[in-house]
Automatic annotation (TrEMBL):
One of its GO terms (cellular component) is plasma membrane. Keywords: Glycoprotein, Ion transport, Membrane, Oxidoreductase, Transmembrane, Transmembrane helix, Transport. Residues 649-671 are annotated as: Disordered. This is Putative ferric reductase transmembrane component. It comes from the Eukaryota. The chain crosses the membrane at residues 35-57, 158-176, 188-206, 226-242, 263-278, 284-304. It is found in: Membrane.
Length: 721
């Protein structure tokens, strides 16, 4: 500190005797933190503006929503069922040009984007010793099948980690300057209050992230959790430093003051929110977490306002405005409908909502409440009386709250104007819910539907299985692909798409696939779509077999080539590669125009085929060195293949030279393989380990190759409690 002298020669501080006043200085840093996070939001909106302008200029928003009614959820369509349906006879074989090959000016930008994306997609593996630890109930999620079952990854990628680190960076930048944290720790409390508005913004399903950025709440929910943890840490530090000041001087009576008691009560409610939000609690009982979460929020805000008057500017009107807008959006999107439920093999239930024709996009989900009462439990032999009473009591408690539980389910169909096969008018919305084990909502729903079907069959025996009708309350849709950038840039202009699904994640991928094919057929754009579906058992293929047949049939004879590969975990396939894949492959048969378009593609880059060209190079083509292996059971999948049959490792019948696509002919002939330069899009939905493996595989693609193919974009759909 600089020393100056007054007129009498007495040393004094050069800045004068300034007393630190936290009620003057700390609010200034509150404003700095608010400016920081709102600037980040504005920057993200600025980067999204070109996509918003394009979707408004082309009128694609009206095609997606159906009408202005689509702004308020799913609906029956503006024409009430009189929308013209595209016919297969009206298909044209002319193709509109897609994205141009990267030029000299565009390549540096693609290189930088590829470098940043490769680094952000990396998922670091945990030490192998952690996988040998005993599993703690409700603490660890179920270990799903993976390419490397013994390898466990961190629950976040480097990109998510970098974004989450912005929170402590902003907090430290506004916490340390001009502060006396030990003598006056009010700065901790001021910053904790400032974090409340962005915390609510990140939690809202209908808020700035969805309106301005077009991103669903599931994409930013991890930031909501990390910001909440930062608030808890700030409040604890605020309480700790004030406590040690007085306890060290033997003046603990200050804790009995009215202001201090209200602050301690607010801290207690905040700790209640924290403990109820831990992953074990959310997995054990989501309704309990939901109730305790709201009770803690109301109690925390009530006592916070009584603790200090400086909280009202940040925790009263902003939170009321954000929450009111969110609730209003939810209420406007609510629909009461009759759902038709059908039980499938493997614990799957298909929920059909006929009559809904517009208002959603591929990959979005609905929050649904189904009003049903689970059937009574069937106890195993040898179960004791106390165990029966305990299980029946728990079952009765669950049955009482089942009608109030809302669960997100992905929409597996597309609106009438975007559906590939044009049957969206009759199908409406289809949702799929798979049983997650005894005692869960999905298991109770499956048992109820099975019991209802058995009762209906006993009363009126009919050859056709009757569906169970129930009332439900819909809310949404939410989530999905980015609303502004994906419809035109990813689904239409990107030449090659890779869609990867794990298990029931196919319900999300199927909605995206339906929209991709429908958009490209409507816009007369060519391209290739590869779909990889990893299932535990081959019988699970029957879940979506009918829908896959419809989409593949719509792409048949067009310039859109769809290839479906199904891989079962029971095959013990270690790597999903072109030379080792043993899963099923179902490709739409292409017409002469599509083959001609492939042969005349001048934007391709020649690459040498791999050395292992002697073994079967395609799951749809027989080996050139020996007979094809016998195809096992399809498990209910009868989608079209190039051989006209159903393949699960090889086609039934050899495809002719005219039917086989150009890539397969080149592979069998040993010619250089062609790489398309119109861009590559990757969409994945499945278990955590599978998603991590795929992201690491994309990150391992050399930057130069990503630039040559026109850029690689990745969308990960993964959300769990």
């Amino acid at each position: 500190m600089s020393v100056c002298y007054d007129d009498n020669g007495i040393p004094v501080p050069c800045g004068g005797w300034n007393v630190y006043d936290s009620y003057v200085t700390d609010p200034r840093y509150q404003r700095y933190f608010t400016i920081a996070w709102t600037t980040i939001l504005a920057l993200a909106f600025f980067l999204t503006t070109p996509a918003i302008v394009r979707i408004l200029a082309t009128g694609d928003w009206r095609r997606t929503l159906g009408s202005l009614a689509g702004l308020f959820g799913v609906h029956e369509g503006a024409r009430r069922g009189y929308t013209p349906v595209r016919s297969n006879n009206d298909k044209t074989h002319s193709a509109t040009a897609l994205r141009r090959p990267p030029g000299v000016v565009r390549r540096p930008f693609l290189a930088v984007a590829a470098l940043v994306q490769s680094a952000s997609l990396l998922n670091l593996p945990l030490p192998a010793s952690l996988s040998r630890l005993p599993r703690i109930p409700f603490l660890h999620t179920r270990r799903a099948a993976s390419c490397h079952p013994t390898k466990t990854y961190l629950p976040f990628s480097l990109g998510r980690l970098a974004v989450a680190l912005l929170i402590p960076a902003f907090l430290l930048a506004t916490l340390l300057p001009e502060s006396q944290l030990r003598a006056n720790p009010n700065r901790f409390g001021f910053l904790a209050i400032t974090c409340l508005p962005p915390l609510c913004v990140l939690a809202a399903k209908n808020g700035p992230t969805s309106w301005l950025l077009g991103r669903g709440w599931t994409a930013v929910n991890f930031l909501h959790r990390w910001l909440g943890r930062a608030i808890v840490l700030l409040v604890l530090l605020h309480f700790y430093f004030w406590t040690i000041q007085y306890s060290g001087a033997a003046q603990t009576a200050f804790l009995a003051g009215e202001k201090e008691r209200r602050g301690i009560a607010a801290l207690a409610f905040l700790l209640l929110i924290t403990l109820s939000s831990l992953p074990p609690m959310r997995r054990f009982s989501y309704p309990v977490f939901f109730v305790l979460h709201y009770v803690g929020i109301v109690g925390f805000l009530a006592f916070l306002h009584k603790h200090t008057t400086h909280a009202r500017a940040y925790s009263t009107w902003p939170i009321i405005a954000i929450y009111t807008a969110d609730i209003l959006g939810r209420v406007l999107s609510m629909r009461i409908r009759v759902v038709e439920a059908e039980a499938l093999d493997g614990g799957m239930v298909r929920l059909a909502l006929p009559g809904l024709r517009a208002g959603w996009r591929g990959g979005q989900h609905l929050s649904i409440r189904v009003f049903f009462v689970p059937p009574p439990l069937v106890h195993a032999r040898g179960t004791g009386r106390l165990a029966r009473v305990a299980k029946d009591a728990a079952h009765a408690l669950r049955s009482a709250v089942r009608p109030f539980e809302a669960h997100p389910l992905s929409i597996a169909t597309e609106p009438t104007g975007l559906a590939a096969d044009g049957t969206g008018l009759e199908r409406g919305i289809e949702l799929y819910a798979r049983s997650c084990g005894a005692g869960t909502w999905t298991d109770d729903l499956h048992r109820f539907v099975v019991a209802s079907e058995a009762i209906s069959a006993a009363r009126r025996p009919t050859p056709k299985k009757r569906k169970t009708r129930m009332l439900c309350l819909l809310e949404g849709p939410y989530g999905g692909l980015p609303a502004y950038s994906s419809p035109l840039t990813l689904l239409e202009d990107t030449e090659s798409l890779l869609l990867v699904a794990g298990g029931s994640g196919m319900s999300f991928v199927l909605g995206v696939l339906d929209e991709v094919v429908g958009r490209r057929l409507g816009a007369q754009k060519r391209g290739r779509v590869d779909v990889v579906w990893v299932v535990r058992q081959r019988t699970h293929v029957a879940w979506f077999g009918e829908r896959l047949r419809a989409v593949l049939g719509a792409a048949e004879g067009s310039t859109v080539r769809v290839v479906l590969r199904e891989v079962a975990a029971e095959d013990a396939v270690p790597v999903l590669s072109r030379t080792q894949a043993r899963g099923g492959c179902c490709a739409g048969v292409r017409g002469a125009a599509a083959s001609k378009e492939d042969d005349g593609d001048h934007d391709d880059i020649a690459e040498l085929p791999p050395a292992a060209a002697a073994i079967p190079s395609s799951c749809c083509g027989p080996s050139s060195s020996g007979p094809a292996p016998a195809a096992p059971s399809c498990g209910g999948c009868c989608a079209r293949t190039t051989g006209g049959g159903c393949c699960t490792g090889a086609t039934e019948g050899s495809p002719s030279g005219t039917d086989a696509d150009a890539d397969e002919r080149d592979r069998r002939a040993g010619k250089p393989l062609r790489v398309r330069t119109g861009g590559l899009g990757v969409v994945v939905c499945g278990p955590g380990n599978m998603v991590a493996e795929l992201c690491n595989a994309v990150a391992a693609i050399p930057v130069a190759k990503q630039v040559r193919v026109g850029g690689v974009s990745v969308h990960v759909e993964q959300y769990s409690v």
